[in-house]
Design a protein that fits this description.
Elements (H helix, E strand, L loop, with lengths): L6 H5 L5 H7 L3 H4 L1 E4 L2 E4 L7 H13 L2 H10 L2 E3 L4 E2 L11 H22 L8 E5 L3 H13 L7 E5 L4 H8 L7 E6 L6 H16 L9 E5 L2 H7 L6 E3 L16 H7 L1 H20 L6 H15 L4 E7 L6 H13 L17 E6 H5 L3 H6 L6 E6 L8 H20 L16 E6 L4 H22 L10 H11 L7 H10 L2
Parallel strand pairs: 5-6, 5-7, 7-8, 8-9, 10-11, 10-12, 12-13
Antiparallel strand pairs: 1-2, 2-13, 3-4
Helix pairs in contact: 7-11, 7-14, 11-12, 12-18, 13-18, 14-18
């Protein structure tokens, strides 16, 4: 496996952003794209034609085109686990047999949703979805972003094993009108199964004679779900080749499909498929996920940036930064190459962020005047999602646009404390509207961007062994089978006096 050579990127003479605009009247056109109802603008990053060409050369060295083709062909690209990675097949872009299997699973899910809507499982009004990681973050994002005006079902997504999280949901639900959806790829996830058992107990205590009759399993391990007590007719499988943090397109998206309606879920898949086709067919210098990854890699490899801030100027996208934290850091937070050799360069930056104007009054002080260089990504939506006066949305988007301008331009002042250095990079994603199709395209864009980063870094974006050690040690501690360091032993003793 070749190793990426960042030397050319590092030797490109950095120029101030305002100088880049002054030198090239076509800069905006060269570094912006419109794809699937989203406007992408990287002109306020330090990308140049030379750096894009250099990254394209690295992509060639790292075999990017062949790896992208292998991804969509359903070949093994998760080399450490010997698996294909086929979330794109869920939206119609993949090996024909994998797409056909996904379509069959979707038909099964739609049939169950139709049955639930027809009352086959009783007078269901509430959906209690338990999962963790990708089994919760994706559905939570979809329901929160798109379901605020939906009145079909009340939905609660519970991931935290802290009993307070489950209490919050059960206090407002009627157990006899609740459908329990258990989302676990293996159907062994400790936190999820404990929450599921407690939910069953709550339903039984609420007078439900057969709580298992109102359970749906979303899993790649149907046999385990059957053994746990779920009826085979209410198991919605998905392929083993669909990874957890890429799984909202599969039956893991069941609560969103039920709450929003099947037509909305299909639109979500179609929007993602549109972005897949753009990613698969466009040249790298006109390819939205590739250009975004090139900017990411420029700041980590040439400028030593350790974090990337994501700020959504739309309340409906408030959960997106949390979703991206898992997608990007679990995928590319690695320290070895696909060949198992230690890397000698940074891999994934720390992804963090929040909601628009709230964060301006919290963390933007550091972004404008701090000593850290932090690439910033802004997201906004042209069509408002509220019923307030136009002033609200106008102020929201004006603030987003002005923050990017201020980060770039800066401002001098006789008082050093009031000086803004400027030359601080930002990119902007502006959605025409926030609907299922555009949100599907947006999430697929981030997935593809993560893949490009992984290929050029020479790492495997699709395993996640780093999540296992702490959980294994917690299980061993519960069983009394592990001797800890003095600090941990003392903490456990204090936690359980």
């Amino acid at each position: 496996m070749p190793i990426p050579d960042w030397s050319k990127i590092k030797t490109l003479a950095p120029q101030r952003l305002d100088a880049l605009f002054a030198a090239d009247g076509e800069r905006l056109a060269k570094f912006s794209l419109d794809v699937a109802g989203i406007h992408f603008d990287w002109s306020k990053t330090h990308l140049t034609a030379d750096s894009v060409a250099a990254f394209s050369d690295i992509a060639g060295t790292m075999g990017f085109t062949a790896k992208r083709d292998a991804l969509f062909a359903g070949e093994v690209v998760n080399v450490t686990e010997g698996r294909a990675v086929e979330h794109s097949a869920e939206r119609g872009e993949g090996a024909p047999e994998s797409v056909a299997r996904a379509r069959a699973y979707q038909a099964r899910m739609r049939a169950l949703i139709d049955a639930i809507e027809a009352g086959a499982l009783g007078p269901i009004r509430h959906i209690l979805h338990v999962g963790i990681g990708g089994s919760a973050l994706g559905p939570d994002l979809l329901v929160d972003a798109l379901g605020r005006d939906a009145d079909r079902y009340d939905v609660a997504i519970v991931s935290n094993v802290d009993g307070a999280a489950l209490d919050e949901a059960t206090k407002r639900f009627d157990p006899q009108a609740t459908l329990l959806a258990i989302a676990s790829k293996t159907f062994t996830t400790t936190e999820t199964m404990l929450n599921a058992e407690s939910a069953i107990a709550w339903m039984a205590e609420g007078g439900l004679a057969d709580p298992y009759g109102q359970v749906v399993a979303l899993t790649a391990s149907p046999d385990r779900a059957i053994a746990w007590g779920v009826d085979e007719t209410r198991i919605l499988p998905f392929a083993e080749s669909v990874g957890g943090r890429y799984s909202l397109w599969s039956s893991i998206g069941f609560p969103a499909a039920l709450a929003l309606g099947w037509d909305a879920f299909e639109e979500l898949l179609e929007g993602a498929g549109e972005m897949d086709r753009h990613f698969r067919l466009s040249p790298l210098d006109k390819n939205a996920p590739a250009l975004a990854a090139f900017a990411d890699l420029y700041y980590t490899q040439a400028r030593g940036c350790e974090t990337r801030g994501v700020f959504a100027y739309d309340e409906r996208l408030r959960l997106l930064p949390s979703y991206l934290q898992q997608l990007e850091m679990e995928s590319n937070g690695k320290r070895v190459t696909v060949d198992g050799e230690s890397v000698s360069y940074p891999t994934a930056p720390i992804t963090w962020g929040g909601v628009g104007t709230d964060q301006q009054h919290a963390v933007f002080q550091l972004l404008h005047q701090g000593t850290h260089l932090v690439p910033v990504e802004f997201l906004g939506v042209v069509e408002p999602g509220d019923t307030q006066s136009d002033d609200h949305h106008r102020q929201l988007l004006l603030n987003m646009c002005a923050q990017g301008a201020a980060l770039m331009a800066g401002r001098g002042h006789a008082d050093p404390a009031r000086t803004y250095p400027g030359d601080r990079p930002s990119s902007t994603l502006l959605l025409d509207r926030l609907d299922p199709r555009t949100l599907g395209a947006l999430i697929a864009f981030y997935e593809a961007r993560t893949f490009v980063n992984g290929v050029l870094l020479g790492i495997n974006s699709f395993d996640q062994f780093g999540v296992e050690l702490g959980k294994e040690m917690a299980k061993a501690a519960d069983q009394g089978g592990l001797e800890f360091d003095p600090s941990t032993t003392d903490l456990i003793a204090r936690a359980f006096p």
